[in-house]
Amino acid sequence: MALEGGMKCVKFLVFFFNFLFWLCGVALIVIGVLVQIDLNKTLIMHSASASGAPIVIIVVGVVIFFVSFFGCCGASKENYCMVTTFAILLTCIFLVEIAAAIAGYIFKDKVRTALQDGLEDAVRKYGNDSLIRDTMDELQRKYSCCGAQNYTDWFGVEPFQSDRSVPKSCCRANATMATCNINPTAATINVQGCAGSIEAWLKKHIVIVAAVALGIAFFELLGIVFACCLMKGIRSGYEVM
Question: What percent of the chain has pLDDT over 70?
Fold first, then answer.
C-alpha cells in the first residue's frame, strides 16, 4: 500500500521532523555530558539533587535518539503500528519534559542549597585533599570568586589559621603583588563567594536552555500532529484496500 497526494507530503514531514529529533537527541546527550563534567568541577556532584539534572538531560537525549530512529523507520515503511508507537512515545516524552520543567522550577532552591553545601565542604577540606584544592583553585579562577559565601570563609581554615589570608586563586587577575592573598581587600582579591557567582552564571545560561527546550517541544508537537495524520492516512489506505 502506497500513500497518495497530501499523505506523501505528511510522510516526508514526519521523516524530516524525526531527523530533527535525532539531531536534538544527539545535542542533548552532548549537553548533558558537558554539564556533568562542569558540575563535577564545582564539587557538588556528591549531591543527588545536583547531579540529577544532567543525568535527566542525557537520558532524555538517548530516548529521543532511539524514538526518532524508530519513527523514521515507521514513516519510510508506512507501518501503521510503528507510526502509532512513535506518536505515543513522543507524546510521553513531551509530557515528561513538561513535568521535568515544573519539577526543576519547584526544586530550584534545593539545587542552590546543594551548591552552597558542596562549596562549604570543599573549603573545609581544602588543606587536606590535593584534588579538592586544585579543583577549588580552578573554580575560583574561572568564576572570579573566593570562598563559598564570600572570602571570609577562608579565615581560620587550614592552612590559613595563623594568617588573615586566602588562597592565591582568589587574587584578581590584574593583581601584581605576590602577597595579594595576605590581608585581602576588594582591591586585591575577588570578594564575592563562588555560590553567588555560579548561580549568576546558571541564571544567565538558563534562558538559552529554556529557549532550546521550547523549540524542541514545539517540534515535538508538530511531530505528534503529523504522525497522527500519517496514521490516519495509512489506516484509510488499508481500509480502501
Answer: 84
> DSSP assignment of 88-115, as one string?
HHHHHHHHHHHHHHHHHHHTHHHHHHHH
Q: How far apart are CA 192 and CA 205, in angstroms?
A: 20
Which cell is 238 given? 488499508
pTM exceeds 0.90, yes or no:
no
Q: Give the pLDDT confidence of 35-84 residue by residue, as tens digits.
A: 777 666 555 545 555 556 667 777 878 888 888 877 877 777 777 888 88
- Write phi, then psi, for 189 (nearest 5 degrees): -130, 165
- What are the backbone angles phi and psi of residue 164, rounded to the nearest 5°? -85, 80
Q: How far apart are CA 193 and CA 214, in angstroms?
A: 32
Decide if 75 contacts 83 (C-beta within 8 A): yes
- Among 7, 5, 25, smallest CA distance to 219 is for 25
Single-letter residue type at 82 = M
Q: What gap in Å lies between CA 63 and CA 57, rounded to an integer?
A: 10
Non-local (6+) Cβ contacts of 43 within 8 A are: 118, 119, 121, 122, 132, 135, 136, 139
Q: Quick check: 39 and 117 in contact, CB under 8 A?
A: no
Q: Tens of pLDDT along 35-49?
A: 777 666 555 545 555
Chain position carrying cell 542552590: 112
